[in-house]
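Most newcomers find our protein records easier to grasp once they have seen one. To make this concrete, we reproduce a full record directly below:

===
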Amino acid sequence: MCHLFTESRQLRYFRQDGKLYSWGTGKRFSANCDNEEGIEVKNVLIVAVLLGATTIADGREPILVPQETLAMAYSADYAPTPAGETTSIQPVPAGTVAPGTVICDSCDNPGIELYNCVKVIQARKIAPCAVPKIVSVPNPCYDPCKPCCQPKCVFVQICVPPCACEDVICRKGGDRMIFSYGKYAVKVTARRDTLVVNYDH
């Protein structure tokens, strides 16, 4: 009797008169059981291996696919800390700045109070692509006999060439300030209670 084994079952065959028969069914095979390398025996082995592999594949557990994680609602158990009070910008005191001082170059500073009685002449001579600049000039309302009533200097905005350094010149007893930029210049003159800004080149 010949025994063939797989992972799921044992196949049994017997030989009679040089023929190979299946145990229980009586089905006859044409190969001789004495020839272990017979063609039919090899075929039976191949079929047995395939049956065993199929049985293992059928019994394999299914692959589990992880479920998608759902978004969870979250609430913070703390309250935001309120911001502290902001510090207000203090105005620049005009009396502590010398005439001709450049206060701010190309900026808008809300802490600087500009003199509001200003007259501009020859504005067509302003330098191309000019930028604003805040400078200090003598106060036209300043009274030397009453120094506590008005500051000695006030602030005025002029337009100057970009990226330029000025030469500051004081003329006529301190009543006129000249900001020279080479080809261009700005003259600021105090007349009574008015500042006259004259652009020249």
Residues 74 and 80 are 16 Å apart (CA to CA).
